[in-house]
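This protein record is not my work; I was only asked to verify it. Where you disagree with what is written, explain briefly why. This is what I was given:
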Amino acid sequence: MKVYQRTVQFEVKPNLVIRVKGIYSPPVDGKMYLSNGDPGYPDEPAEFYIQNVELVEGDILDFIDYYDDSSATIYRRIENAAIESLTNEEI
């Protein structure tokens, strides 16, 4: 599995922009069978491990209000947004 240090910036909503730094692992297609006939392996989804989140534009209270959820869910939403931004990028 390849991993890359990546920084992605995106607009959460109008006037609320964050920059996220982390480790990105792109998705890997699985295989039903290996060339020698052995069983293959399943697909691996893209992953993003957050190292830092920086508020670029907006107010921290707007950020908290937007997510208005537990910190674990906020973390997961940021990871998913970063993956979505990076999945379409050529590496």
Notes: The chain has a mean pLDDT of 86. The longest strand covers residues 47-57.
